[in-house]
Amino acid sequence: MRAHGLPAVAGGEDEDAVPGSRDFYVEWDEVAVATAGQLRVAAGLYPEDAEPAELVRELGDGSETFRTLWNARKVDVRTSGTKSFRHPALGTITFCYENFVTAGDPRQRLAVFVPAADDAADAAVRLLTTWTRTGPPFPMER
Fold first, then answer.
1. SS3 state at 13
2. Which of 35, 56, 100, 129 is the most buried (most CB within 10 A)?
3. pLDDT digit string (tens) for 26-81?
4. Which of 11, 128, 122 is nearest to 61 (CA)?
5. At CA 68, angle to CA 3 and CA 19, rounded to 5?
6. Contact, 68 vs 43, CB < 8 A?
7. What pLDDT band is residue 110 in, cutting at 50, 70 and 90?
């Protein structure tokens, strides 16, 4: 079982499994601690569910970083905050986020991100939205 992006953020098997993930998340260390803590909460809430346990085993087998985070036994429930990302062409963009638990299934969350209240973030997001229609005006490296 592999949640997209989780291993790279939580310190899972080969932190570079998603190339550039440490560079993409400006506060990578903080995000990794929080992600491991949120996984610990999910595993505790649903002990009968084999998938979180399987994911914890897989991540622990592949990464000393994850084992250290998991063994710290920190729990983390984040409902809101800010996250900063490094875009390869636009630099650092900061977003405010809010997590909402769905009424029909408490295992599902809707995360809403909006640009932080600064002109640079707003301008970057506006530019990115034009690229969804036209593509960037130059080739992007992957």
1. coil
2. 35
3. 998 898 899 899 899 888 988 898 988 899 999 988 888 899 999 999 888 888 99
4. 11
5. 45
6. no
7. very high
